[in-house]
Amino acid sequence: MSTVKTSYVRGLWAGAPFLIIAIPFGMLFGVVATEAGFDVLQTMAMTMVVVAGASQFSSVQVLSDGAPFYIAALTGIAVNMRMAMYSASLAPHIGKTQKWHRAIAAYFLIDQTYGVSILEMDRKPDLTSNEKLAYFFGTATLIFPLWYASTYVGVILGSTIPEEVALDFAVPVMFIALVAPSLRSIPHLGAAIVSVVVSLALVWMPYNLWLIIAAISAMITGAEIERRMGVSK
Amino acid sequence: MTDLDIWLTVIMLGIGTYIIRYSFIGFVGDRELPEWLTRHLRYVPAAVMPGLIAPLTVWPEATGGDPDPARLIAATTALLIGGIFRSVLGAIFGGMGMLYLMLYLLG
Lengths: 233, 107
What we know:
The structure holds 2 protein chains of 2 kinds.
Chain A (H helix, E strand, L loop, with lengths): L2 H13 L3 H18 L3 H10 L3 H12 L4 H12 L1 H13 L4 H9 L3 H13 L5 H29 L12 H10 L6 H17 L6 H21 L4
Chain B lengths: L2 H26 L6 H7 L2 H15 L10 H17 L2 H19 L1
Helix pairs in contact in B: 4-5
């Protein structure tokens, strides 16, 4: 087996544990989008085109609050801005591979594929660009089809899930779960506190302007605390 | 929210997200970013996600916008488990588990 194939297979195994998160998360999206009024085609189109759970939930939430489509899309885009950092951090590793390979890789850049791949790339700097890229594609192999499939299962089950399951609150809990692990750093904690306080204070504003103002104030807070502390993370 | 709104959201969010993903591996390659920019980008998740869900947590739709002790306790539980154990799964299961327990106990 070539070293590129070996890297691919190793990436595939390394990505497997993350299915535990992707499957219920995907199902939940299917349920939430359906409850918000999306039909099957719209739900599946969003899940397959966007493939970024947190932003999908955000956009559906904003849209069902009655905001115009561009506010919904911009909210989701804001949530996905973190991927610019992922992209920036992967660039030195795979930036020299063929351009169309990178164009395909961009579609598969999500929290899990990035997180698993960057560990391997930092740990094994001797791997070639192509081996690193193969590893990255390996990490995406199981999670993407299962993300689509679990969304579909959520759409089908949606209407049969009883109200006592309180799925409305699974969305806040999930966002808390995604952010909480980072809050042990003081700049992150500061950013999160400002975000909560400003959003609660300004939530009366139309078109989710409150969220954009809260997010920008919170980003500046985090970056400024970091600068004054002189820490790198 | 019309069908057109939904489709335009899917298209705009899809294109925007793809450009973000492609940005540095595609356009920038292996050149360095300005330090001030990466410093702000680092706080995007912590700046967006808490603000997004704070109103839903404090004034949940399911109770008609009245603060609900069960949901507040569940949110705090998820926050503590996620923060202390750095576990996404633990926070999800812990938070929802606590919600069901509280809904059962508090009626």
